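This part of the workshop introduces the protein records we will be handling. An example says more than a description, so a record of this kind follows:
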Amino acid sequence: MSANRIGVSDMALTIVDSDILIDVARGEADAVNCLLRLEKTSALALSAVTQMELIVGCRNKKELEDLEKFLNRYQLLKITGQISDRAVDLLTHYFLSHSLLIADGLIAATALVYSEALITKNQRDFRFIAGLNLLPYP
């Protein structure tokens, strides 16, 4: 995939979860309007985990090519050692009590390490994570 982390700017980032991006790709109005509103105040980004989730949802080369074009408008936040360590801490703390999954732990860790907001339709998967700036949807 060719999406890249663009240089740090003065504009805040909002990390977008895969569920919203799937709805945007399907043309669902709530998701499209949500991202249009967010783009007025922040740059939109996604975790490399979200990128991977979307890739494995592709059924053929055409869908994969379309996905690559679609993702070019978002900043890609790669998994770093710091993000990995933070995800391990989150899983240690929240897996048994809240069933936090690996992918969600990595996405939340990305938002926490970058100190940026996360938006997702699946609020219940993240709302218990201390310090996470979880934006309401829609």
